[in-house]
Amino acid sequence: MTGDDLKVRLKIELPGGVRLGYGKVDLLRAVEEHQSISAAARSMGMSYRRAWLLIDELNHCFDEPVIETSVGGRAHGGAVLTATGHRIIDLYQAARDKVQIAIHDELDQLASALVKSPEVTDK
């Protein structure tokens, strides 16, 4: 195993104690893919209410919303990722990638200290 096998999960503390991390970024990506908050939530095993609260929190953190919704039922309603939402995903990914690169040596050292052949136990 090498440091490349270890993954960094970055959380950024925003003003007001709001955190931007991989979970919220994954939710934004899921909304982009499914064009729906409820479908995005289902795809992540999350309740609609939890997804809506997380998106609402992000929408209030930035100058412009990250997700815009429209009502209208099955054929006309939905949710779209805004330009701000795309930018937040891109900025988060760039920051995570920079951190991963910056601590590459430490990740290699951690990987070399891990058990080489973990034992599987029945519990």
TrEMBL record:
Q: Which residues form the HTH lysR-type domain?
A: 27-85
- The domain of life is Bacteria
Looking up InterPro entries in the UniProt record yields:
LysR_HTH_N, Molybdate_resp_trans_reg, WH-like_DNA-bd_sf, WH_DNA-bd_sf
What is the protein name for this chain? Answer: Winged helix-turn-helix domain-containing protein
What species does this protein belong to?
Answer: Thalassospira aquimaris
